[in-house]
Amino acid sequence: MISKTCKYGLRAAIYLAIRNYYEVISIQKISQDLNIPFHFLTKTLQRLTRNKILVSTKGPKGGVRLAKPPQNITSMEVILAIDGSDIFEICLLGLPGCGVLNPCPLHDSWTQTLENLKKSLNTTTLEFLAEKVKNNQLRITETNSPEFLNDLIKS
Hints:
Blueprint: H1 4-18, H2 27-34, H3 38-50, E1 54-57, E2 63-66, H4 75-83, H5 107-123, H6 126-136, H7 146-154
Antiparallel strand pairs: 1-2
């Protein structure tokens, strides 16, 4: 449902939320830690910077950090910054013009599902997701090891 770019952006945003939100982290470090191709991640993080989710700094100690505390950034904000709102407006069957006046057979249930999803994404903050990762040893990369999480949480 969301793009690969958006998935990478969410993972990077959670990663930054786990760390001190005001700490500048190099894109190279994020790329290595999350196993996301550097150039792909750079373009993704540029979108988040343009949409004021991240702040970018240049120079030898440059990188990115969250633009505001993680409790003030929702997962919906990250998704909208990268993928836009189209994903919440498409017909599940891919039919053009699907809507109240011309619905597909799944329109009503899909609309309700999307409303529930929007509600959840609008109330799920990066802080909440970061805490879930820290407290429950949840993964944000394919090969999360307990050592990786411990190092990430300690840094």
